[in-house]
Amino acid sequence: MKKHSDHKYIEALQKGDGKLIQEIYEAHATAIERWILNNNGSSADAKDIFQEGLVAVYQQANRPGFVLTCPLGALLFRICKNKWIDQLRKKNKEEQVRLIEQERYSDETAVVSTVEQVEEESARQAKLDDSFKQLSEVCQQLLKGISEGIPVATLVIQMGMSNANSLYRRKSACVDRWRQLLK
User: Fold this and answer.
1) Domain map of the chain by residue range?
2) Domain 7-99 maps to which CATH number in 3.30.479.20, 3.40.140.10, 1.10.1740.10, 3.60.20.10?
3) For the segment 123-161, what is each residue's pLDDT rounded down to a tens digit?
4) pTM listed for this prediction
5) Between these two residues, 12 and 109, which has the higher pLDDT value?
6) Distance between CA 33 and CA 49 in Å, rounded?
7) Which residues, at least 6 apart from 32, have a Cβ–Cβ distance to it below 8 Å?
8) How confident is the model at residue 17, as a pLDDT?
9) Taking a C-beta distance cutoff of 8 angstroms, is the pair 79, 57 a contact?
10) How far is CA 143 from CA 94, 130, 134, 139, 156, in A?
């Protein structure tokens, strides 16, 4: 295999030649940063990914028989691109886990809220039942009959009242008494 002219940069990485390594940064860091910025990343992300990419190139260069056969920029860009895509996938998975946990927490909160509402409603209903039992037998029968939808004329006869007006007055008095008992 024929070495590419950029193989000098591989040798520079292996030897730690600061001048040529600086050339790598100057020649390729901006393009990789621009690509990462255009793909939901930040400048800090781009710098980290570029560093990781250089480390990966260095590791490949130290494998026996490694020969750079393409431009260093193309290799470095492909490595950085793959690393960034992997990082985005990881971030996406973490975000999905966060959303699932948030939904679970919100569901637990909703369940607790529902349980509290049921308990409050049960307590309110128990209070209504207790106060209803304290009403006179006539009031209990009258209010039950009205709530069950028994026609007024039938209730007047069943309750032994003279007319509908008497029934309504009695109903009003019973409801007022029930309200007092609830307080």
Assistant:
1) 7-99, 134-183
2) 1.10.1740.10
3) 888 898 898 899 899 899 989 988 888 888 888 888 888
4) 0.53
5) 12
6) 9
7) 46, 49, 50, 53, 76, 77, 80
8) 87
9) yes
10) 59, 15, 13, 6, 12
